[in-house]
TrEMBL record:
Record-level Gene Ontology MF annotations: 3-hydroxybutyrate dehydrogenase activity
InterPro entries tied to this protein: 3-OHbutyrate_DH, NAD(P)-bd_dom_sf, Sc_DH/Rdtase_CS, SDR, SDR_fam
SUPFAM superfamilies: NAD(P)-binding Rossmann-fold domains
Gene3D superfamilies xref list: NAD(P)-binding Rossmann-like Domain
Pfam family, one: adh_short
Designated name of the protein: 3-hydroxybutyrate dehydrogenase
Transmembrane parts of this sequence: none
Top-level taxon: Bacteria
Taxon lineage: Bacteria, Pseudomonadati, Pseudomonadota, Alphaproteobacteria, Rhodospirillales
One GO BP: monocarboxylic acid metabolic process
Recorded family membership: Belongs to the short-chain dehydrogenases/reductases (SDR) family.
């Protein structure tokens, strides 16, 4: 379905981004990976995708908090593959503290990586998509793009920003073969969430399993994590012709979190 297309997925060395990269490759897209991690792990992921799905895979280690890195990543991808047809802005970090104690450098980092990097990648990807008359932009927002939670001021602000940015890009490109949508996961079992589970177990003196159940019990009525390959399947759907007329929306996959 996506054979001949190129998908650049930020933050795809781990978690949700990796799940999306695998599913997009399964659908036939060439992949540009991005994110941090041990070089051996990234090389193994690259080889796994190439051999399993018979697509081309490149990797760019851009630090998305740096605009020059993003510019280099987008230029390198365009030089190798002609253009980026599918852009998935997924990389993100979390930091939790009450607002009055929230470190200013953490605010700046969360806004840069979780929000501004999507603006930069989109502004750099759009001209080629517009010239081609086809493009798909998928932004990994969060339920925290739709509702708030305590101690997550920067993350919630960035994710609400992503939802707004998604609408503007959708409107400016409506009718041009380009869609821009956001995905809003609830809890997904990835390293980003595992850190929060471990911190909670330590802070409350409970087991990791009990911390996991408490986390789900507070917010996610299904009492189960969404899986990264389920989010990957949603990304593939958004790239399909069935979703041609879906644009500017934010789709929760949250076990009922935002239905409450
Ligand atoms: P993760 O920690 O498993 O993966 C994050 C990825 O982003 C990694 O590949 C990491 O290397 C990369 N990254 C981090 N900082 C970067 C930087 N400065 N430059 C380049 N890459 C960087 O996390 P995840 O849970 O898979 O999160 C992915 C996205 O999903 C994030 O935007 C997150 O906010 C969002 N999200 C996650 C959950 C969840 O429950 N896990 C829920 C809602 C939304």
């Amino acid at each position: 379905m996506l054979t001949g297309k190129t998908a650049l997925v930020t933050g795809s060395t781990s978690g949700i981004g990796q799940g999306m990269a695998l599913k997009l490759a399964e659908a036939g897209a060439n992949i540009v990976l991005n994110g941090f991690g041990p070089a051996d792990d990234i090389a193994a992921l690259r080889t796994h995708i190439e051999t399993t799905y018979k697509v081309q895979v490149d990797y760019h280690g851009a630090d998305l908090s740096r605009v020059a890195d993003i510019e280099d990543m987008m230029a390198t991808a365009a030089a190798k593959f002609g253009r980026v047809d599918i852009l998935v802005n997924n990389a993100g970090i979390q930091f939790t503290a009450p607002t009055q104690d929230f470190p200013v450098d953490k605010w700046d980092a969360v806004i840069a990586i979780n929000l501004s990097s999507a603006f930069h990648a989109i502004r750099l990807a759009l001209p080629a998509m517009q010239a081609a008359g086809w493009g798909r932009i998928i932004n990994t927002a969060s339920v925290h793009g739709l509702v708030g939670s305590t101690h997550k001021i920067a993350y919630v602000a960035a994710k609400h920003g992503i939802v707004g940015l998604t609408k503007v890009v959708a409107l400016e490109n409506a009718g041009k073969g380009i869609t821009c949508n956001a995905i809003a996961p609830g809890w997904v079992a990835t390293p980003l969430v595992q850190k929060q589970i471990d911190a909670r177990a330590a802070a409350e003196g409970i087991s990791v399993d009990d911390a996991r159940k408490k986390l789900l019990g507070e917010k996610q009525p299904s009492m189960a994590f969404a899986e990264t390959d389920q989010l990957g399947a949603l990304a593939v759907f958004l790239c399909s012709s069935a979703a041609d007329q879906m644009t500017g929306v934010t789709l929760p996959m949250d076990g009922g979190w935002t239905a409450q």
